[in-house]
Structure formats: C-alpha cells, structure tokens
Structure of DNA-binding protein:
Amino acid sequence: MFAPEVINNLTDAIAEQLEDKMTKKYHPTVSREEAMDLIGCSAAVFNEIRKRDDFQFVHIEGISSRYSTANLIEWINGRRK
C-alpha cells in the first residue's frame, strides 16, 4: 500500500498535467458550448450553474457567452468555491 503523501503527490501531479492539456486544447476563453462540453452537462443544467454565486468568477464581464478557460477548470476542480 502507498503512503498517503505519495498518493497526494501523485494525484496533484496528474491534476496538473490534465489541467495543462485541457488549457492547451482550448483557447483562453471558451464559448457556452465549449464550457458545457468541459463540464459535461446539458444546456438546462448549464443555465442553473451560471446562476450560482461560486460560478460568477468564470464569466468574462462585458463579453456575452464567453468564459475564462483557466477559471472554468479551477471551478471544475473545486479549487474555488
């Protein structure tokens, strides 16, 4: 069995690699459809998510239906609540 420190370090390394690949796959901002694809939800569910207080930092002010890719990935990973 692995020590908890090893598991935590491995998990962090995997998360960083995945985040790096996802960021490179998408532009700095994503459309509504791309955001739904990243989250893996339907349009109805995404409308509810958009209304959440903890999701507001993802939306880019002044630009209709564009979201920050980096902030969206942070939100998905639960780093910002």
